[in-house]
Design a protein that fits this description.
The protein has one domain (10-138): 2-Layer Sandwich (Glycoprotein, Type 4 Pilin), CATH 3.30.700. Strand 2 (95-99) and strand 3 form a beta hairpin. It has a four-stranded antiparallel β-sheet with strand order 1-2-3-4, with helices on one face. It is 36% helix and 19% strand. With 140 residues, the protein is α+β, with helices and mostly antiparallel strands. It is built from two helices and four strands.
C-alpha cells in the first residue's frame, strides 16, 4: 500500500513567497502615499476654525491679523493633530500648516486668503510638499 504525501513542494513554496514579496513591494508605497494624502486632507479640516477666525478678524478690522493671538486663536504649537506640528497665522493673513515626519518633517502647506468680490476665497499653495500628496485644489 502506498501512502500519499500531502503538502507543498519546495518550488511551490518559493513561487508563493516570491509572489507575496512582489505584491508587498507594490502595495507598501501605494499605502504610504494614501496615508500621507489622508493626513493632508485632515489638516485642511483642522484649519477650518483658523480660516473662520482670520475671516472674522478681516471683516471687523479691515486688515489681516498678524498672528494667532490677533486672530483670537490658540498658540500655533497647540493646534496639532497626528501629522500636524503647528498651525500659524502669518502677517498677511495666510495660514501655514506645518507637518511632522508622518507627512514630511518640517514640510508645510500655506492657505492664502484672496478677496474675490465680497467673499474671501482660500488659495492653497503647496509649500514644500510634493504635489502627488496634495488634494486637487492645491496642485499647481
Amino acid at each position: 500500500m502506498k501512502t500519499a504525501q500531502s503538502g507543498f513542494t519546495l518550488i511551490e513554496l518559493l513561487i508563493t513567497v516570491t509572489a507575496i514579496g512582489i505584491l508587498t513591494a507594490i502595495a507598501l508605497p501605494v499605502y504610504q502615499n494614501y496615508t500621507k494624502r489622508t493626513y493632508i486632507a485632515e489638516s485642511l479640516s483642522l484649519v477650518g476654525s483658523a480660516k473662520a477666525a482670520v475671516t472674522e478678524y478681516y471683516s471687523s478690522e479691515g486688515r489681516w491679523p498678524a498672528n494667532n493671538l490677533e486672530a483670537s486663536l490658540a498658540d500655533a504649537e497647540t493646534i496639532t493633530s497626528e501629522a500636524v506640528k503647528r498651525v500659524a497665522v502669518q502677517p498677511n493673513g495666510a495660514i501655514r500648516i506645518s507637518f511632522n515626519e508622518k507627512v514630511k518633517d518640517n514640510g508645510y502647506l500655506i492657505l492664502v486668503p484672496d478677496m474675490g468680490g465680497n467673499s474671501i476665497m482660500w488659495e492653497c499653495t503647496p509649500g514644500t510638499l510634493d504635489a502627488v500628496y496634495l488634494p486637487k485644489r492645491c496642485r499647481s
